[in-house]
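name: query_chain
kind: protein
chains: 1
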Amino acid sequence: MPHGARGGSPSGRNGEDVVVPDGITNPVASPIDLLIMPHGSRGASSSNRSGEDVVALNGITNQVASPNDHMIMPHGAKGERISDRNGGDMVPPNGITDPVPSPNDILIMPHGSRVDRNSQGIVASDGSQGHHTRDKEIQTLAMDQADMEVKSSASSLDRDIRTLAMDQADMEIKYHPPSGWEDLTACLLSKVFSYLNFWDRARASTVCCHWNLVFHQPELWRRFDFEVTQETTSYLKSTPKGLIKQVLQQHQEHLRFVSFSIDAHPKSAEVACDILSQMVNCSLKTLELMSSAKPTFMLDKDRFVSALNVVVVSSPHTISSLALSETPVDDPSLLMLAKTHQDSLTLLDIESCPNASSRGITVIADHCRKLHQLTIDYSHLSEELLSALCRDEHVTLKYLKLNITKEDAQEQFHPISQESWALLARHSPNLKLVMNFYVLDHSDYEVFFNFEMPVTHLYFGRYVSQEVLGRVGRHCHRLNEMVICANGNIPLDRELLQIAVHCKHLESLGLGECEVHCAAIVKIAKICGKQLTQLFIREEVLLEDEQFSIDKMTEKVSTYLGRDWSPELMPYWD
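structure:
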């Protein structure tokens, strides 16, 4: 209690409570509690004869403690044993003597003892010396006690709040259960909408105002596909002009993943370029331009490049994936892309881009060192490009796709040295190297498969000779997948068996317009076993022999592959 304060207890004689002037009630102290009295206070009890309470002169009431209890009093305070029949002071019997302390010292002595003050100090009646501490220790004791009370009160309050919240939640569930879709929160409804395509979401937005508001939430407009077609050239439905306007005006800043599907009509390319030129407030991560028919983007090169540069400049350091196949993109555009997205670009697809060159793609490889997926024409591949992709500071490549196609009959493919292919294999040991061949002449394969190549996927779209397949078996030991679309009427038994023996990682094999005996297919299935997860063979390709009919071959192959297998049937219509 503050110095000079007086406390009155409404039940002082029975020792139940002690009340200070501001109404704070202290519980009755136990026999081992300490009595803390301000400096200069005197103890007086309202129950002198019964010895129940001890009351200081300022009204502080404390339960009478045993002689072993202690009373904490400021230096200079006098205590009286009011419960003594002779009115004598409280004097400890052991005579503890205390040296002369400073005025700020505190005397700690057994409760019920008398204090005598003289010039030498404070001496108990039994001659023992009292123990004293500094104000700082008393303040620390008081602060610790206050912290314990606050923590106890806060813990109790937290438990009460949690209990109340749980009870309230149980009552809400009991008396207000969800009645239907209209009660779904915006967060849950947005999650449901994310599994719908755009047109289904648009129809759902007409259900009610709440659903319409959720339909316009930013997270549902991160991805948008523009269909730009003409009725005369495509069966696909074009994106309505009103919707395109709404996207550009209301949700342009929310767009992150954008794709364009364009038919061969020149007007469609003009509309796509017009949309791109208006995307000035975007922060795109991916941009994909796809063609639903060829030729595509047949318009003025400068107009397309200008529209593309708007997107590239408006989304600095954010574009990670860019697919620009069959567009008039040129080297200056690639240079700008390399400068503005060198830290973000990871995927680039620029196959069939006649205005781009190997030099421009090499600039991309030099600057964009996080690039790990690249699709280009073989005509753009060079020793310098492979060297740039294999530098120590460049990330390992995951995917490299090369399209080998011949637009001019007089064109000759340039060779890539064995050292460059070996460097690529060492730098990117897990590289998926895809080579698509669309050539008709055997001479077009002269620069390929003459030494070890790290190719993993081969697609022969037109013609491939037996001699070329033999080189594949000898020099493509990493081969994982091979598809032969056409070969002629010469059986490929020996070449396919050689590939199955030497290409230990072969998992997929597809045979189109070629011929192979049933016995050879059984041997291939036996060599590859369950590892051969994809085996596509048209039934008309198979030639029955003395060992196996088609039915017997089917049963045997199924046994080796560990699953039911059968050749593909070509449907016939009358």
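note: The first strand starts at residue 17 and ends at 19.
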